[in-house]
Structures are given as C-alpha cells and as structure tokens.
Amino acid sequence: MAESVSYRSVVMATQYASWLLAQLLRVRYSIRSHCPAGFFDRDPGHCLILTANHQTYIDLGLVMIALGYRRFRALAPIRTLGTQDFRSPVLEILKPVIKIIYKLEGVIVLPPEEHHDRSLPEKLRGMLVALHEGEVAAIFPEGEIHKKREPPVGEFAPGVVYLHRKSGAPIVPIATWMSDRRWPRRRCVVQFGPPVIIPGALDQEAGAVWLRDRVLELYTQAKQGEPQ
Hints:
The protein is of the alpha/beta class. Helix content is 43%, strand content 16%. It has 9 helices and 7 strands; from the N terminus they run H-H-E-E-H-E-H-H-E-H-H-E-H-E-E-H. Strands 1-7-6-2-5-3-4 form a 7-stranded mixed sheet, sandwiched between helices. The relative contact order is 0.19.
C-alpha cells in the first residue's frame, strides 16, 4: 500500500534533522569519503540500493555524513532495512523507543523471527515497494554488526540480490573503514564504489558473494589510503 504524502513529508523532515544531528559525530570521528570521479555530480535519480558493511551502530550516520548535504538531499528519503529482534538486553529494553524512531525515520522493519513466513518476498516486501516507488534503499547485507578483524567484511545474505533483481535498481557498494587508534579522534574513511549490476549468470547466493567481494575491495582501498 502506498504511503500518504503527509507521512512521507514527516520522514523527509526527520531524516533532514537526523542528518544535521549526525554532524555531532565529527567531534568523535575524523570522517573522510572517497567517491568515483563524477559520482553524484548530477542528481542520479532515485531507485538505488546503498549496500555497506556493518561495523558499528552508527554506520548509517557515518555514511550519511560522508555523502555530504548535496548528495544526501538528492537521495532522500533513504529507506533503511531494520530489525526488531535485538540481541542486546539494552536495545530490547529500549525497543518501544526504537520503534518510534523507526516510524519517524521511515525504516522498513523485518518481520519478527517468530513470524510464520520468513521468506525473502515476505521479509523484503516493504523495501521492494519503496524501490518501485522510486525511493532509495539502504541495506547492510551482513545482517548484524561484524566484529571480526579477519575477514573485515562478513558474509552477505542473498536478500540484497533479490531486491536488486526484482526492482532493477543498481547497487552502490560502500565500505567503511575505521582506524584501530581511537583517540583523540578515530579516523573513518567511507569509500563509495560506482553503481553495479550483479552478473545475471550468478544465482542469488553467488551474487551475494560477488557483491561482498566488491565491498571488500573498497574496504582495502579505504584502508590503504590512510596512514596506520
């Protein structure tokens, strides 16, 4: 079902406010971004899937800051895929507040783990509707925060490939690298890749591996471009 114009206006206003609030992260992080030449120099149009690795709870904020205001404005609203099954006891306690934030931000929520239908079409129906309406989707295909140092990017779930092929939306691979040194400010590099189309000869599982390899390449570029 299509969303009302008034609700979309609320989402837009909330996301603009969140982008401004996220600038406070610059106090703690030294954030740099690298984009391909000509990347988003003009309004790229909508219906894109932003796909990034997932290291911290603030990854989305870091990516939005790295986009810069002009690019963020061209893409907004950005519809993020979120979970309602939290592993952290603290997040579970804060669940009612998180649900309100989700609603205001236009987050599309995965069905709960106990839901009888956890198929890809059911889990990603809301995201697919948003993409068909020309909006931008943001997804972290690792599904949870990846805490291992090696490999630095975890396995990707095939859902992003399903969205990509059902919507026809190009995927923008994104890698976020953070320095081991945390003080006085932790360095963060967000490396954007050019929009890609996953080769049609690959099935969903193989397509997810292919996309992960692209993000891993970007992660390596981001890391090599910074002093250790």
